[in-house]
Design brief:
Distance between the termini: 33 Å
Protein name: YmaF family protein
Pfam families: YmaF
Radius of gyration: 17 Å
Strand order of the largest sheet: 1-2-3-6
Organism: Peribacillus cavernae
Largest sheet: 4 strands, antiparallel
Shape: globular
InterPro entries: YmaF (IPR024307)
Length: about 120
């Protein structure tokens, strides 16, 4: 089964040693897709907290949907954590557009094994 996908790729300035190209999908099976940025600070546990930021996976526009997300926290107190999950459904705004709420707990890591809670709202 073939699914038509459109998008574009551009070559970066090579400042990132891990990636030199960026791919942006703009439609999937004829439907436009979009992403949201998310960021925040974890709960304070075992004497520290972590910052995090990322971009959700693409999802279709114009229909009810959620987004998967994945990122790593900042490196604090000698370790970092993974954050992953699925946002809640789109919450429409009176002026147009929407955002999503997200929450969860990180994976366990650290010299004293622990996890952190996190929650927030995506960008519009």
């Amino acid at each position: 089964m073939e699914i038509p996908v459109t998008g574009f790729m551009y070559h970066s300035d090579d400042s990132d040693p891990m990636h030199s190209h960026h791919l942006y999908i703009t439609s999937w099976d004829g439907r436009p897709v979009h992403v949201h940025e998310f960021k925040g600070v974890t709960s304070y546990d075992v004497g520290h907290r972590h910052r995090y930021a990322g971009t959700t996976e693409p999802a279709p526009s114009g229909v009810q949907h959620t987004h998967k997300y994945f990122t790593f926290t900042s490196f604090d107190d000698g370790h970092k954590h993974q954050i992953r999950g699925v946002t809640g459904p789109a919450i429409p705004l009176p002026s147009g557009g929407h955002y999503h709420e997200f929450s969860g707990v990180t994976n366990v890591d650290g010299d004293t094994p622990h996890r952190h809670g996190y929650s927030g709202r995506t960008s519009l």
